[in-house]
Amino acid sequence: MKDYRLPSEGKMNIYHPPSGATSKAYVSGLKYSNKLEDMNGLEEGLEFLPTMNAKKVEKRGPKRCIAAIAIVLVCLLLSLLAGFLVWHFRYRNAPVQKVYNGHLRLVGRNFIDAYENSNSPEFADLAREVKKMLINIYKNNQDVSPFHKETQIVAFSEGSIIAYYWSEFSVPKHNVEALDRAMANIQASNEAGMKQRGSYEMRVETVVAFPSDPDIIKAKRDNSCSYALHAKEGVVTSFTTPGFPNSAYPSNARCLWVLRADADSVISLTFTTFDLEPCNVGNDFVKVYDTLSPVEAHALVKLCGSYGPSYNLTFVSSTNVLLVMLITDATERYPGFKAEFFQMPKKKNCGADLTAISGTFSSPYYPAHYPPGMDCVWNIVVPTDKRAKVRFNNFFLAEPGIPLNSCPKDYVEVNNVKYCGEKKQFVILSKTNKISVRFHSDLSLVDSGFSAEFMSYQTNDPCPGKFACNTGRCIAKTLRCDGYNDCTDASDEKNCTCTEKQFRCRNGYCKPKLWFCDGMDDCGDGSDEAECKCPANNIRCSNGNCIPESKKCDGKDDCGDGSDEGSCGRVDTVSCKTYTYKCRNNQCLSKKNPECDGNKDCSDNSDEDNCNCGKRFYSKQSRIVGGEDSDEGEWPWQVSFHTKDTGHFCGATLISQNWVVSAAHCFQDDWRRHLDHRTITAYMGLLDQGDRSNSNVQQRGLKRVIRHPYFNDASYDNDIAVAELSSPVEFNKYIQPICLPDVTHDFPVGKSLWVTGWGATQESGNGASILQKLEIRVINQTVCRSLMVPNDVTDRMMCVGVLTGGKDACQGDSGGPLVSLEANNTLFLAGVVSWGEGCAKRNKPGMYTRVSALRAWIKEQTGV
Ligand code: 4AZ
């Protein structure tokens, strides 16, 4: 596989807020309702008028009427007043429970080990004193003091002493804002300083308070799983969720791990296994804090779902503490995580003065996630007769929802411009021989940072012998005006004169004529596809024909290839054609690719039969690390064929417990002699060729190999074979079969597919140790034929790649899978790696065996 792209035992007490907010203040409401009862009594008194005396009644009628109205009015008024008072005391002025977490920095006393243990008498003494100091600080603030209910000191760490606390307040609603403001600005007051026994004074230097992390106050949970761990010099300490790996973590739990290191050290924490409930399914998550208070403002990361072990899940603290918190809900339970941590000396400064012609530098601890609260400056100076430039090869400074134009949180600043987010390789030029790069990380949410190179260039010629892109990148002059965007900002494709073999797009770009009307928007403005032969009110079929728009989805195949009836949003039973999906009951459907899409489209449901395939347990989460290495379990159908002599020689794909699909040419040697299948070993569940004894790997011999009878070893037509394993493999998270596409299954031009393998990472190069993955696109068959020797491309082949070059399968990938992610998150085997003209050459796509075309043969041979 080749991707030539440029590097594009102190328990921690956490406060449980009371669930209901009842208070004595409610009682005052009742008082007023008693008054209402009194009034009812008054009204009842009216009923005792002597109704027998009609005259009297008549005479006194108007007076009585007025009195009655007056009484009703008074009653109404009183009830209104009572209602208002009830609302005022019960709702408007009802007290709210507020909890703040924070820490205080104390000076004037040294940290001792006993302070790490919340059960020690020393802890209790200091906690008592600190609590008094904090309450003294509150006392000086009228927006805080009257509402304070309770404070607890929960932990201490070095520096000189940092005390972590929570405070609870009961505050009327209309005072909440003032309390929030006051707590955000809470200041240590001198009066909080306390004379200690004897000669010296312990003083509060700073106090910070944050509202409790909303993630932890949502629900009451069992928090019996709390642990305190201290790193040992030169030793890696590991910890796991309770029960891991034999049983699932507890439900409705809040587990905490307090991680500590020696003073002047920082902690490196890595999750080596991480398998929680998927993020979109439940509410289980892990949060890591760069402090011992679980406050959002110091959260480094929030993780859920599962990650393969090759993800970069390493985090570095800014001081000698970290807090790891696991929150779980009532539903589904998963294995959990295993993590390890160790201490490292705290770097005194990051950044450097760099004086050389060229060199490299990177964000602190790269590729681990950088610590929060960093400010580093690299002052780069190249020889005076040259100018300086910096190229960022990897750049990950992303936080969700952060505006990329202002970069208010983490950023890199060069030439007074701030850069943040996730970026492909980019270059920044200086107009002098100096350039300085500043890196800033704020106090929360970290990413994996950047790696960069600095270089010098000639003032008058930034790219000797090459074309200088506006991005600062240097590319070969031959790449200018060739229709491909090599500069990434397309500056190599601007102001071009189109050659004979090119056409001009409406937006001015020149593109190869053979891309005209190929079903892909190559111009970027659609102009190469807009003016294709079809007249007005016509649509283009996948086969290039034009039909009137009114004929789309009319139940008839007007195109001749069925593409006008493919995606009509309904499933009709239609007359069977070569391109219509046939159910087991012989009914044919108008719907394209109905198999295993989660909808029962056939009346006999046969399109959803045999769909225990194409699913993976480890799919990519949000990006954690760039690169093209696969993750364990990401491609659970990938097989590696080995012989004793050659080691890995070909890939294959698991289609059932007993059968794999590969390329016919894999079973012949360089002299086209058949390989003896008894010499071949198949490895399933493998990620790293150097780690074949890994417990996830299952190894089998081959019982037999069946090559396609029409395989042509000159043209590689019908380049397919199936092999039966010596005994069935066991399916698990790392070993799963792929789905096979029906003969009618369409992988349209432009669709992106994934090819995987341990093949060479460059033409004539060495194979990869870690399974590589590469995203490539289906290329129009006609375009492909015009790029290759036309007769070489048969209907049993599909062309897939990137015509710009640089991305391709290569030697050693042969026989391996080309897969497509389809509806219902199901993956299908679209192709088998077959051949190509070299690897990753421009305009020379990779050639794959079209599996749908050979589907019937696979079924005949294997029953799958
Ligand atoms: C091979 O020799 C091979 N570029 C596989 C794929 C390609 C080239 C060669 C496609 O196994």
From TrEMBL:
Coiled coil: none annotated. One of its GO terms (biological process) is proteolysis. The active site is at residues 665, 719, 814. Residues 225-344, 350-457 form the CUB domain. GO terms for molecular function: serine-type endopeptidase activity. It comes from the Eukaryota. It is a single-pass type II membrane protein. Residues 624-863 form the Peptidase S1 domain. Residues 96-214 form the SEA domain. Keywords: Disulfide bond, Glycoprotein, Hydrolase, Membrane, Protease, Repeat, Serine protease, Signal, Signal-anchor, Transmembrane, Transmembrane helix. It is found in: Membrane. One of its GO terms (cellular component) is external side of plasma membrane. The keyword Glycoprotein applies. The keyword Glycoprotein applies. It holds the Pfam family Ldl_recept_a. The chain crosses the membrane at residues 65-89. Disulfide bonds join 469-487, 481-496, 498-510, 505-523, 517-532, 534-546, 541-559, 553-568, 576-588, 596-611. CDD domains: CUB, LDLa, Tryp_SPc. Belongs to the peptidase S1 family. Snake venom subfamily. This is ST14 transmembrane serine protease matriptase.
